[in-house]
Amino acid sequence: MADRSLRGMRLGSQSLQSEEGVVFSPRSIATYRSEDGSTFEVTFAEEAEVPEKWMSPKSGKEGVLLESDGTPVEQAHVETKAPRTHWDMLLERRTRAELEELLEERLQYLRARRGKQSIAS
Question: Rounded to whole angstroms, what are the CA distances from 43 to 28, 32, 46?
């Protein structure tokens, strides 16, 4: 029995599905150029927003998006507003003198409370 081979399809090596009737989603190809001058292409869905920079899969260097004529896409620089910190928001509501007064009141309260706890223990 060991001399005979099993007949039939090889399991796992071939698919029974065909690509007949399959409609692929529309795609667009973006070309990027890295600092060393090498170019590479990345495929995106047609409705996807194409980023201006992409990492090269071969070299790992960052590439810049190219126009169809081969010139780099001009990057739109957006000025970002500095994030407001808690301190900034606090200064919008109170003056520095008011804050110092509140701090002093709170410190007095905590010192008085600490004094009562040391007496009780």
Answer: 6, 11, 9
